[in-house]
Amino acid sequence: MQARFSRRRFLQSLGAAASAPAAAYDSRSAPLISSSMAGSSSGFVHPQKVLLWERTRKEVREALQSGDLKAAIVPTGSTEQHNEHLALITDAATATLFAQQAALRLYPRVTVSTPCPVGYSPYHMARKGTLTLRKETFLAYVFDVIESLTAHGFGTILVVNGHGGNHGLLKGAVPEWRRKLGVTLDAVSYGEGYKEEELATFLTSYRQKLDGELDTLARQTGHSHASENETSIVMAAYPDRVRFVTLEEYDRAGLNYESDMPPKVWEYMEPFDAQRTTNPENPRDRARQEQALLATPEKGERLIALGTRYIVDRLQQMIQATDAGRPWP
Ligand SMILES: [Zn+2]
After folding, report:
1. Residue 329: inside a domain, yes or no?
2. Is 253 within the bounds of a domain?
3. 93 Cα: distance to centroid of ligand 1 (angstroms)
4. Which residues does 325 contact at the CB level (< 8 Å), separation at least 6?
5. CATH code of the domain covering residue 231
6. Are 65 and 133 in contact (CB under 8 A)?
7. What was the pLDDT predicted at 273?
8. Which domain holds residue 65?
9. Does 245 have pLDDT greater than 80?
10. Ligand 1 center from residue 94 Cα (angstroms)
11. Cα 311 to middle of ligand 1, angstroms
């Protein structure tokens, strides 16, 4: 990743959003995770207008009554280690970013509900700072948020997930939730919007993988987490959440995620031991750190555009199904 990234250049690249003072976004945005990026295809929409938690009850009521507001996105993420260089909030922040970008493009039809900031991450507990929910806690939380939205009359709800550990849990739960709630409901991870061949046209590590140039299993398997892909997204949207860490600094820290674990942490990690034996964690962690050095904000902008388009398409189809009284999917 780049050693320095000019915040002013970043703001200038945002077009309409940059016309408002950056300080106002910094102080007024939601705790931790809101994005200050605008992206409506038809004129300027203040980015906070699509965030449910920034609205008043009057604004939500009137938008629902008028029929303008039809759908809600529920972002789900995690608070977990993202190697040495990305803030722990990365997955919650990126899920919220993609949700907000999609809602802006579909304004005023879509709102973004308050995100779930902690996910299912026991296998990251060996790294300091990671928080994890139990599976049942995570699913109960997400269901309760969705049910609250249905109580207010939202007939179309899409969970946009930013963390791999939540993915299978959400996919498994959605059919049952649909039956219970009787609304147009779905869950996607923003990474589902990416095709490896497409990413290989502008991400070095993906091209090297497709060309068979990555020599170790560790280098071939780190892609989705904290490496070139995710680091680029954070550099583009949240430069304050990226630190520059060299491989020399990484090696000097002498990290060992296969043996240096207190008993309490081992309890979290034990069910994942078999996986770590076939694909040891130390080389994989280092490969991610190495691939993160390929990240740039420009790559991140392309990734954000691709992932947002995927979510917009999905939501448009869902809203059409609800309007037509068709079952989903
Ligand atoms: Zn992540």
Report:
1. no
2. yes
3. 9
4. none
5. 3.40.50.10310
6. no
7. 66
8. 7-324
9. yes
10. 8
11. 18
